[in-house]
Amino acid sequence: MRRGVVIVAACLLLLAAAGCGSSSSSSSGGTTTEESGGGGGGQKTIAGVQANDHGTKAVEDKGKTEVELDDFYFKPTVLEGKPGQKVTLELKNEGNTEHSFTIDSQGIDQDVQPGDEAEVDVTIPKSGVVSFYCKFHKSSGMAGALAVTGQSGGTGGMTDTGTTTGGGGNGY
After folding, report:
1. Number of folded domains that form the chain
2. Closest by alpha carbon to 61, among 87, 32, 38?
3. DSSP readout, 77-144?
4. Is 165 inside a domain boundary?
5. Mean pLDDT calculated for residue range 96-111
6. pTM
7. Is position 171 within any domain?
């Protein structure tokens, strides 16, 4: 009997410990966000849109720059280049659902099926940032930006709204 009580108590302790995830909530600038892990760095706001942050990368001077489309983020999230630079992006949908790469101001709306690839030619803005997004998952934070290298303190015009380390979640 005593052994059974000890085993039950040990199981309850394990369950309690497993239930304590490491997701956290933080507040910045009056905005509170809760985020999940999965390799990302939290969320950022770009042009008023929440974006799941998966890093910043300088675009290639010559050749193509790879952009991963996944469920539900772009990696890298911010692409930096020289003002007015023309860039070919190699889009790779590594997710399980259809995604798009859409930039309204440049007339780009490229759909990419799961496992497929596509290429688009974009232009880094002369100043500021140009946002891109997935038309199917923008509300889930699938957005990013083209930015001028070194502008806006190296943040690509994006502002932090909180970060987390680890935790479960929606695969962002």
Report:
1. 1
2. 87
3. SEEEE-TT-EEEEEEEE-SSS-EEEEEGGGTEEEEE-TT-EEEEEEE--SSSEEEEE-TTTGGGT-EE
4. no
5. 97
6. 0.67
7. no
